[in-house]
Amino acid sequence: MKKQEKKPVKELEDFGKSLVDDIEKGRNPTIEFNLRSLSNIIFDEKTRTLGLGSKQQQRTFFNVGHAKKFLQTLEVAKISKSLLDVQKHASLRDVFYMAKRTIPSSSINIVDEQAESDNAIEDLELITGCSREQLNVNANKMGSVAGNVVVEDSGDTINWAKLGSGGWSIPSNVEDIDFKSIKAKYIIYMEKQAVWERLHEDKFWEKQNCIIVTSQGQTTRGIRRLLQRLNEGDKLPIYVLADFDPWGFYIYSVLKFGSINLAHMSGAMTLQNAKFLGVTADDVANYDLKKHFIRFKDVDFARLKQIADYDWFKKNKAWQRQFKMMKEFGAKLEIQALSSKGITFISEKYLPDKIKRQEFLD
């Protein structure tokens, strides 16, 4: 199964050498990389993913407006190199505290807020072409998975089918995981841990020969990468189960097309053949769910309009129909509303029927 090429140490060393070369030649030390801003985000119609355009930005040391961010970038590069040298990993929060120190003979901190070190790490991803995880910086773990899959992780053999009620806790960095055995027809990703627990307790993954994954809300990078590796290596279809609301639709959008914040990582994160399984406007009528509507607030209408105007949804008649019906309802619906039909309705009736009838949105 495909892994990202490992080259972080060399890339960091080359980055440092380029700055030393500037200094030795009497030039203003300069960092140049693709501009990370909304004005440089493009939607590639061919690959159907978000990405960065060709606009470049420069950060120079002898520039008052650049100096602090220049130093922050060097600081996180130094931290990453030290982590790689000792073969240790650090969390984003760890990196913040490792970088937070006062510049000698001044009262200025290199970073004051974690957002500054987080941004510097994302810049470093662009500069080196290496992911944050390859640079040995990880985020918090926020996901679970179960299914008939055997993996090897850090020398341990782990069977996702035999880990009790909690399943396997998905790590932030999944690049070094080796897949020894995968027995599944498809993957269902769901935003809500409670829904995952329902399916896991009902042994849905075993009865339906699939893999069930959750991230407790917006999908983490580790989970997106795990899903992509499963999809690329074994061509497993991925079905997204989310609430019938603008935020549930956005979760699907991020998985399939990428996100603005991580446009520079789209190649390693997007799932171009993911399909939306539910909950949909059609389910409202088919399963008599109107009584469980949650009325829209102004922020919901605004978010719905924003998503409906995304380039990748604009020409999609099926999705525009969903947006129109949601607007007419003036309401949203949670996945858990299906529990009104019975505690095991979602696992025994709703999901098997929809998958059998291929009732997906693409």
Task: Give a summary of the structure in a few sentences.
By secondary structure, the protein is α/β, with parallel strands linked by helices.
Secondary structure layout:
Layout: H1 8-24, E1 30-34, E2 41-44, E3 49-52, E4 56-60, H2 67-86, E5 90-91, H3 92-99, H4 114-128, E6 137-138, E7 144-146, E8 149-153, E9 156-159, E10 168-169, E11 178-182, E12 186-190, H5 193-201, H6 204-207, E13 210-214, H7 221-234, E14 238-241, H8 246-257, H9 266-269, E15 275-278, H10 281-286, E16 294-295, H11 298-308, H12 311-314, H13 317-329, E17 331-332, H14 345-356
Parallel strand pairs: 5-6, 12-13, 12-14, 14-15
Antiparallel strand pairs: 1-4, 2-3, 7-10, 7-13, 8-9, 8-11, 16-17
Helix pairs in contact: 1-2, 2-4, 3-4, 8-11, 11-13
Q: What does it look like?
A:
The chain has 362 residues and is an alpha/beta fold. The chain has two domains: 8-138, Orthogonal Bundle (Arc Repressor Mutant, subunit A); 144-356, Dna Topoisomerase Vi A Subunit, Chain: A, domain 2 (3-Layer(aba) Sandwich). The protein is 41% helix and 17% strand. The strands form six sheets. It has a six-stranded mixed beta sheet with strand order 10-7-13-12-14-15, with helices on both faces. The protein has a three-stranded antiparallel beta sheet with strand order 9-8-11, with no helix packed on it. Strand 2 and strand 3 form a beta hairpin. Helix 8 (246-257) runs parallel beside helix 11 (298-308) and helix 11 (298-308) packs antiparallel against helix 13. The chain is globular and about 70 Å long. The mean pLDDT is 91.
